[in-house]
Amino acid sequence: MKKVLVCGAGGFIGGHLVKRLKKDGAWVRAVDIKYHDYVVSPADEFIKGDLRDPLFVKKIFDEPFDEVYQLAADMGGAGFVFSGENDADIMHNSAMINLNVVEASVVSKVKKIFYSSSACMYPERNQMDPKNPNCAEDSAYPAQPDSEYGWEKLFSERFYMAAKRNYKLDIRIARFHNIFGPEGSWNDGREKAPAAFCRKVAETPNGGEIEMWGDGQQTRSFLYVDECIEGVLKLMNSHYNNPINIGSDEMIQINDLAKMVMKIAGKNQKIIHISGPLGVRGRNSDNKLIKKVLNWVPNMPLKDGLEKTYQWVLKQVNTNI
Amino acid sequence: MKKVLVCGAGGFIGGHLVKRLKKDGAWVRAVDIKYHDYVVSPADEFIKGDLRDPLFVKKIFDEPFDEVYQLAADMGGAGFVFSGENDADIMHNSAMINLNVVEASVVSKVKKIFYSSSACMYPERNQMDPKNPNCAEDSAYPAQPDSEYGWEKLFSERFYMAAKRNYKLDIRIARFHNIFGPEGSWNDGREKAPAAFCRKVAETPNGGEIEMWGDGQQTRSFLYVDECIEGVLKLMNSHYNNPINIGSDEMIQINDLAKMVMKIAGKNQKIIHISGPLGVRGRNSDNKLIKKVLNWVPNMPLKDGLEKTYQWVLKQVNTNI
Q1: B149 and B120 in contact (C-beta within 8 Å)?
Q2: Which pLDDT tens digit goes with each residue over B47-76?
Q3: The dihedral sign for the CA sequence A145, A150, A151, A153
Q4: Which residues neighbour B84 within 8 Å (Cβ) at sequence distance 6 or greater?
Q5: Domain B3-179+222-246 belongs to what architecture?
Q6: What are the tens digits of pLDDT across the range B33-42?
Q7: Which of the following is catalytic: A69, A122, A149, A224?
Q8: For A84, nearest residue in chain B (alpha carbons)
Q9: Which of A13, A275, A313, B214 is 20 to 30 Å from B54 by CA-CA measure?
């Protein structure tokens, strides 16, 4: 029976990953600083603790795991990572976790480790044109991410690569592009655009007004969490050990994203544009490499994932009244 | 009486800094993972311990220091940082130290902290022409250091800057350019070019052969350690809180550096060029900013510092026979 460790199992993607790993028959040790906010983890063990603490990390790596998934990070949507107010904490907390996890993986002879990097590590200069952003894997250098969150991901990617070279650590690295879906942040200040618009549309009566940061002409792509997990597992089963995008290439204007949510909700609301943290002007996953390496690309239409997400957020909104 | 903490006090620059601080009348707590290899530290306290351990770091920050000097790092000359073999350790060890030290500085309300960054953080593209390298402070981005040692310095610089923004930590950051002098590594695999050539010339009879990595046409500048310390103290007493070069702008070919040492030694030896780790093709400190900000630049001729260094290395060589 495959023994798996999931770091960050109390978070959004980690929670979905644990479900899938259990469904696939693995023995799973889940670790996080908090229990999952929305589901009871089906993990065989859930150890609550601080991955910034080297001693705690040594303890949870007390056996040679077949696979480790390192998803733990101090992160959130634009309101959290682009405000500038959390920069030092993001760098400190996430870097400490990665430094500890890699060291413990080497010492305990982990067979294979997955690290979740982010599209936020790509340089700002290639993401100024909302209609034509470039996020090909080989466009990452010379480096100039637009956030400290992105700089930490870039540094930690390099650290995993160094451990691969120096310690033969068998690594897989994905650069996630805006993963979304049910059972994630929707109202705690760390939510991303899809969950935020689902909440705003759900909470606002038909004919009312919802707020949006910026002019809404910035573009992004969004990947539904089930397809993200599928990509991660396919990557783990492949031999590709350099950073690779896992994201959708269905790029959409943020204005259109909000309208898509309204259509799902059967509501018509007015968008009020206000100032707020924005990030880059345009971003889209470049899927040429993943197509070549895994012979697979995500293909669920955005509106299908958004439908599921809206229904879940609507339920939260109704429960929270 | 000013209370000062020196992290990395068992190292080359840290050792010289402690001497100077004591001469200037400060109370000094010195910390390092090892005692100094060549001198008995005049520090009021010398605490031996591992700065990668967050608990140890919390303990040594048990009072609000007036000044902290963070010089601790896993580092060395080209043979150590450019071989590629130590990349993961360098990143892990140095980043852990900086993450811990900044956190403890914020918590214990340190009044001012100095961080020693490095010219190794500058992008390789501006250092390809040995006659005309560009290391102006504002040439650092977009980023592409040629070593993981440089990437760690870059990441940690950004972390200190983030702590300045988010926690009002009063920081000073210098980018050191090849500091040299007596009482530093000369034969342990971490020595830099000046000490290495002093050793080779001292150990080799007149008319013999000494080895050099590369064709010797690569250029560098070297700053004598006393002037480095002078610059650090001037920076600490200034209000400038962005990264600034501390280095010499007396650029020299490595072939000429070796010949200068031979002249000091009164020897004539043949240089044998062999392959080895090299680093960038050219590097020189750009001193326009420091001149403007501190109204001071280092001005000791290279040969004067090299003379002192040679005499010290010669003594070590003779003692070690």
Answers
A1: yes
A2: 999 999 999 999 999 988 999 999 999 998
A3: negative
A4: A165, A166, B277
A5: 3-Layer(aba) Sandwich (3.40)
A6: 999 999 999 9
A7: A149
A8: B166
A9: A13
